[in-house]
Amino acid sequence: MTTRPRALLRAAALLVVATIGLSACSAPEPAPEPEKPVRTSLTVGVVGSLTSFNAATAQGATPANRAVASLLDERLGSLDGELQVVPNNGMGRITRVEGDPLTVSYELFPDRTWSDGTPVSLDDLLFGWAVSSHFFDDATYDAQGQIVSGTRYFQTAVPADPNARTARPTLNRAKDTLTLVYDQPFADWNRQWMLDRPVHVVAAKAGVTVQQLMTAILSTAEGDPSAPATPNPVLAAAAAAWNTGFDAPAGGVPDAASAVAAGPWKVSEVTADALTIERRDDYQGAHYPGLTGLTVRFFADRASQLAAVAAGEVDVANVGDLDPTQLASLTDAGVQVTTGPTTQTLQLRFADGTPSDLRQAVTLSLDRDSLVKELMQKVRPDARPLQSFLSSPATGQLYNDLTSGNNAPGTSADPDAARSALEDRAAVLRVAYDATDDLSGAVFTRLVTMGAKAGIAVRAAAEGEQAEATLSWVGEDESLYRSSRDRLAEGVDGPDAQRAFRKLTNDTDPVDVLASAKEIDRSLFTAYAGVPLFERTGAVAVGKGVQGVAYTSEPDGIPPSFWTWSVTTP
Q: What are the record keywords, sorted (predicted)?
């Protein structure tokens, strides 16, 4: 009766020992692989040095400073990748209240703050108006642009536009609204975004209070160059702070404490080589980024930037006008490169004294299709001849609408028609161009060949010699108003062009602005004022695993909509 249970216990014990022994001889379970770290920040590569946190001053408007400003600063509007206006519905609202007199209201949404926690207020908008309007200036200038009397307070990179003058703004603090009434209707009213440097920071740098500065802006008389007045001391102090107070000291870097901004980033570190920014958790706008931070690296030149992109050290970069070898090098390194048009265009401009028949003959002799194919399509296969004096494909659908029915000439050559325009007379065209620019030199060489087929001897204008035409790189503006203004100011003119521009200036509906711009283009083509050739190519490089980065047409600009950027690989 007792023997069997003992036998069973002994067997169980042996089984346990055997199991333990087998377990001791078995291979251990492999340790789980450590999880790969998730990247939440990217590196952006920019050519140039950071010299100021105010990119709106005459000395601060460098490509590198503007690139940083596009990340930090937030206003009531911005430009997309095709340089068209996008309202910032997360900050406030711009409304055209009335057309005549043109009345525009600026509304700020509540709970919007600067990166130091100070509320964004109507005081900031009022100060932004004071800066951009030059309302208080009473300076008179000589032929070289030097002040001979009076005062210019704010040294802005963009001069005051006489067509954009307004009365002093009115404020409705109960509704957080500032209202402007223009002296006359103005086409670019929707590009006046007001918000500038934070007024509380400017006032502190100037040694005045915000209230003192607001009182000065609301009470100081409008400037009159015919009767210059003693400068207002508060305005003068604020202007001095705005002009230079955000700049780097000699041999140093800008003070990170000065980088108070309204956007979703705040500056955490500044060195000579890089800027580090972190996401603001208290940001309440519409551009909250998925990334937690960005590092902006600064490069001395394009070659070092490209090398860093190819090596994987930079995730996002506007790499400019690549040649085929540079493009191949980046793509071989696994970099995604998007090429596209920019706003910089090459145009053949005829001098005022160039005979009409010679202008027409040269226009007919040009094979612009072959120019673009040979010089542009190796890097940008979809490049086409430029068909406007006022815009380029960089502006997307706006350019398509403008060039539909604007009387642009054909894009292929017609040597027989060119000879007929000259009545089979031999002709000479002296061309001025920048021989140090590779594209201009290549175009000139081809002009010589094309002209010869039409009986036109094209040669380079000697120094001091009057040229019949000039190859000019032109920085087109995303605004049809400003492009038209600048082309006419440069002497490119045609019948009724000035009348059409006067109308365009006062058009406040984009449809009317487009119609007037198209009329200006038609006038310039009718007068054979010149021949638009092509626009320079741009390129945006994106590293492996980076998504959401769009192309930008702005030369050296940061790709837009950084809040859509993401990264999927470590």
A: Signal
